[in-house]
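Re: the request from the purification team.
They wanted to know what the chain is likely to look like in 3D before they choose a buffer screen. I agreed to run a prediction and write the result into the notebook, where they can find it.
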Amino acid sequence: MTVLSLRAGRLAVDLAPSAGGSIARFAIDGASGSIDLLRPADAAALVAGQGSGASCYPLVPFSNRIANGRLVVDGREIILKPNWPGVRHPMHGDGWARSWAIERHDGHSADLAYVHDGREGWPFRYRARQSFRLEDDRLVVGMSIENLEARPAPAGLGLHPFFTRDTDAELACQTRGVWLTDAEVLPIGRVAVPPEWDFAVSRPVDGVALDNCFDGWNGHAMVTWPRYGLRLDLTASEPFRHLVIYVPKGSRYFCVEPVSHASGEIDRSLLAAGATLAGEIVFRLSNL
């Protein structure tokens, strides 16, 4: 398995192209040791080519679940097969489970690409790209998806980072609405963000249980680790104006996922024939 190592200042990033074009490690390396900003990747998952066990993986061509695998595009019903162990609804697209080609790589940057032929999984052809650039204080991730069909096709983008979760880890972000979900994490209705899920003012993630999609996001979130005196500013350009927040009970991580569409609504996000959807996500690190 090929690992691409990027280094800049005190920051270290390892990429696993053959495991879903994923990030296998994002950490601070210093004389006194390392601090993992994202959960370390599961080695067995990477060897198996499964980005789902990584520190962060791309969500292409859609985020979250498609209820019963049912899509309706241009009046035509399409049924997709489940693609995630233990989940009967197709989830998180194709990219995380495919090998990505290395288009370019040096000591502080890399470009990866994945071309989907539409014969297995997602029934529409597309080309996805990721660019990674590591600077002394930030990681910049560019993402794009190009519709290779001769007709409009559903297409979305997202990034799924797993942030290290200590008891004092905090999150801040501004959102307007949130989708409530059923027992299978399928959206059942949108409401204004209730106080217990409101992160407009930085607050600990411990004590909160979430796996929900928020809208009205302004493209900025902040994660802080008071224990380490660290602050991470997550900023995203258009089209990332939805945010999935996943805080599982009892886990050592939590997720703040910039995405381009609401959960379950990928069939409303059509990309014109030959068109490209693109955006950029930045992880900027500073001291508190």
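For the purification team: Residues 43-47 form the longest helix (5 residues).
Please add any questions underneath this entry.
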